[in-house]
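Input/output pair, single chain:
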Amino acid sequence: MTTSLRMSAIGWSLAAMLCLPLSARAAEVTDKAVMLFRDACLASAPAFDKAMAAAKKFGIKPQMDLGASLVGMAPDGSYSLQVRGKKECAVTAEKSAGPGVAEQFRSAVAAAAGVSTASLAPDGPLQINLRGQTYVVRHDRKGGEAYVIIGAGGL
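Output:
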């Protein structure tokens, strides 16, 4: 492929992406709780065994070991991580400053599942396939922010 053809293809790809509605584009993940969910929960599925170790870079320190469950919290208490065996991983946080956090969550989930953001339902629980397993993923904004991934077998 010649350089001019390659540049033309890149130009057309960029133009096509810019024509997509905002909801179809991947949102940049800047919210710390969404990053924690992505790096600890989504990245460690299906076992979630490395979630607490991944959370250390966010300042999360294990607080309670409840046998099948682990709970950790940031030093300032602004967000926490809960892991329940090979079944569930959740991040809770104080209310986010804006509605953009919902798009960041959907973007992180879509990237982990290898699908486009547009292919995900606009709200409510999402069902995704990740590393050969089926999960239900949810973002709840009542009283704060909660990001949860549950193995479909654990429902």
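The chain has four helices and seven strands. The beta strands are 61-65, 69-73, 79-84, 88-93, 126-130, 133-140, 145-151.
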